[in-house]
Amino acid sequence: MAAPNFKQELVGVFGQPVAENPTQAMVEAAFRHHRLDWRYLTIEVAPAGLAAAVEGARAMGFRGFNCTIPHKVAVIPFLDALGASASLMGAVNCVVARGGQLVGENTDGKGFLESLQPLRDPAGARVLLLGAGGAARAIAVELALAGAASITVVNRSPARGRELADLLRGPVRERTGGRLEAAFVPWEGDARVPEGTDVVVNSTSIGLYPDVDARVPLDLGTLRPGTVVADVIPNPPRTRLVREAGARGCKVIDGLGMLVGQGRLGIQYWTGVLPDEAPMRKALEDAFGG
Ligand SMILES: NC(=O)c1ccc[n+]([C@@H]2O[C@H](COP(=O)([O-])OP(=O)(O)OC[C@H]3O[C@@H](n4cnc5c(N)ncnc54)[C@H](OP(=O)(O)O)[C@@H]3O)[C@@H](O)[C@H]2O)c1
To answer: CA–CA separation, 279 vs 36, rounded Å?
Structure first.
């Protein structure tokens, strides 16, 4: 008979504020489903304590941890290495202990691709991306690495929008063999969906709880039936944009798809097991009350 083991493997999330972050419910549902004796801890870490928290994770043998606001960029100097997309994005949302080293990865954009792939192959896709913050950067870089033909960035603040378009036209295009077309369009009035667009992504925070009726300034009349419309907002999943685009015959993807997708990849990095999606999505739906 095997000796009893009272020591679980540890992972978690460092953020501030973090109390309302539902990732623990989602990840521990996967651990239970796959009988993994692991724990995922939700840990409030202030910016001034980040260096000590990372050292603490090393000292306590954490197998990895997620980073959320405000640590996704600030954590980089405390890590030993970066994965390819995290290095292109300059942001880490998932740290993985590998061979005694802490390696920073970024699974946000990969999680988005997981939710997109069943509806549309990203290779060759023409994409309209609303927003240019952290989520937009992650999505844009992964879409480009997956072979998207063009990415048009629309953002309220021109400086941030241009910076993302420059990243795509520079280092990212270089990594993709020079095929990607990328442009920035200032967000004035209702954004129009250019003819021939395959995928529209809302990667702004418009519509996030409690601002649930907020409208994404988008000219719905320029959306064609069959276009894929994805929203990154996980709470509530059925945002106004998801409802309105669905009513126009678009194929819609809610923000739970990306959240579950990035969570599955994080669990795979840490444990080696790619978990089933269903119990994770169910845990989030329960956590968000619907
Ligand atoms: N589903 C998932 O797994 C997942 C993962 C990561 C993030 N998210 C969600 O993604 C959203 C964005 O997160 P983030 O980390 O990218 O935040 P961020 O870096 O702060 O970026 C926010 C983006 O939203 C834009 N924005 C905000 N309010 C706006 C408004 N009223 N009108 C036009 N644009 C507006 C900002 O434009 P400016 O540049 O002009 O300020 C910026 O482009 C959050 O709601 C978060 O919950 C979801």
So the answer is: 14
- The bridge status of strand 9-15 relative to strand 181-186 is unpaired
Q: Which amino acid makes up residue 19?
A: A
> How many angstroms does the Cα of residue 206 sit away from the middle of ligand 1?
7
User: Which residue's entry shows tokens 């944009």?
Assistant: 241
Q: In a 3-state reduction of DSSP, which class is residue 207?
A: coil
Does the Cβ of 208 fall within 6 Å of ligand 1? yes
The CA-based angle 87-134-116, given to 5 degrees, is: 90
Two structure tokens written together for 180:
């990607």
CB of 131 shorter than 6 A to ligand 1: yes
How much is the pLDDT for 282?
96
pLDDT digits (tens, 9 = 90+) for 73-114: 999 999 999 999 999 999 999 999 999 999 999 999 999 999
CA distance 70 to 17: 9
Q: What's the token pair of residue 119?
A: 């509806």
232 Cβ closer than 6 Å to some ligand 1 atom: yes
Q: Where does 197-254 have alpha helices with state H? A: 240-247
Question: CA nearest 100: which of 132, 63, 72, 125?
Answer: 63
Residue having the nearest C-alpha atom to atom 41 of ligand 1: 157
Nearest residue CA, atom 35 of ligand 1?
A: 204
The residues near 212 (Cβ < 8 Å, ≥ 6 apart) are 236, 239, 240
Confidence at 290, pLDDT banded by 50, 70, 90: low
For the chain, the average pLDDT equals 96
> Taking a C-beta distance cutoff of 8 angstroms, is the pair 71, 15 a contact?
yes
> Does the reported pTM lie above 0.90?
yes
